[in-house]
Amino acid sequence: MEEKRYIICIDDEFFILWNLKEQLKKVFGNEYTIETAESAESAKEIIQEINSAGEDIPVVICDQVMPGQKGDEFLIELQATNPNTKKIMLTGQAPAQAVGNALNHGCLYRYLPKPWDASDLELTIKQAIDSFYMDKSLEEKNKELEKSLYFNPETNFPNFESLIKLLADPEKTFDSLSLVLIKITTYPTIIKNFGIEIYRKIISRFLQMLSVHLQAGGTVYHLYEDEIAILSMEKEENLVANVENFRLLLKADDIVLEEVSFHLNCFFSSATGREDAYYKAKLALFQAEGSNSSSFVSYSDELSTDHHLQNFQLSQKIRNAIQNKEIVPFFQGIRDNKTNTFTKFECLARIRDKNGFLAPSVFLDLAKATGSIRLIGLQMIDGSMNYFKDKNYEFSINLTEAELEYKSFSKWVQARLAHYGIDPKRVTFEILEDVSFAENINSVTTIRDLKELGCKIAIDDFGVQYSNLSRLLEIDPDYIKIDGRFIKELPHNKTATLLVKGIVDLAHGIGAKVVAEFVSNEEIQKTIVDMGIEYSQGYLFMEPSEAV
Fold first, then answer.
1. Domain extent for 429
2. pLDDT for 43-84, tens place per residue?
3. What are phi and psi of 488, to 5 degrees?
4. CB atoms closer than 10 angstroms to residue 416
5. Helical axes 118-150 vs 409-420, angle rounded to 10°
6. Which residues form the EAL domain (predicted)?
């Protein structure tokens, strides 16, 4: 059955209400049900019934001067129950204070005077409907993205980001908080011999068994493929005793999947605390792995070192920067060697600090280790798009495995492009050299989806680590950025010169343009131009800056 959609008109004058309904029925009657009410109280009953049925109310048109509750008061109240509904005040007697009240507190979409112009009214409602469904589409995409960020897509259990978000929530109060980590050590063996799909069925069975065993004694988190957490309000010794019973059951009984038995070996650790509970338990888990202990290892102060403490404190700073939106995009110009002008800029992440800014070399590895790299990447993309929305430049943004592994990432990008009104052709996504497509089956699909949107793709630091020739077949890049280690050796190193020439010929042969990174002096730049490299980037032209 097709979902109904409603336009609601409220006015205490019968003939005005009748005329309004008839006009709207002629234009919108085939797609929308036009409901009328002669008072705010009657309208509330209609709206409550429609809300209960889960159906859309794109537009409400309300008079100001009515018996009982006034129009502005009704619209403010409506904002609390239907924030996305577009609210139009249609009246000839509304004082400026009432209109201002509705604007400030009821998110008034438009004010139209009586008598109204029919064409103006119809156009206003059409625009309001379009705005409602655009907002609804963006909201649904953001909800889909939030689910992908905070829940494991295969098992639907809350993931690492969900755990850290809860631990850091200042509104949550815990009298006692305990955490257990479980590392499945047979994960690589199962993957190697039976594949990822069989392992996911096994881990789903494992998580279900653990949840049933714990009952109300803790919440299970599927942090990573081989790592599970249990968060509990119980004392640490009680939680450990409960999970110890599960460990003994797991040791005695295999998990049977389609008449094949699988025995899971695990390491276990525990800790207490608040925001640092996970990191303490992780140190204890490292200890369990290092000593190859199948028994529980509980955190103690002896496990911590100055190095660990520094990393932990920096990880706290990273998390706080994400929460406070202090991930700042810096920009470095990419010079067009034909026009000698900056036509593109690369967006580079920095963290705002009381002493200045932290460079990626300081925080990137820890961000990857804790999983916060995902949120850094999303803030960078959103911040960069916001910065360039009104500037006539192309810009590029780095992508890590954290973004590429999500199937919904390209949909989120599409939503942000629409939000900022940016032509996808202006955006290039740079695939970092440490992204392994073999380990993330969704990566190539995500890249192709981004190209279908109209975005461009660059291979960053070409020539090192995973940036091999097979990657060209998988990606079909628009740009190849030659790793700075080769560029720095020009023009005095013959081997570097031959390698760069080979990369340039290869790139041009497949229709890709070339960017030379780390251009530091005029001699190198002249060699680059002579080789036919289209773009140059480096400190010779511009250091990374907060503004273009």
1. 311-536
2. 999 999 999 998 999 999 998 888 889 888 899 899 999 999
3. -60, -30
4. 21
5. 150
6. 311-548
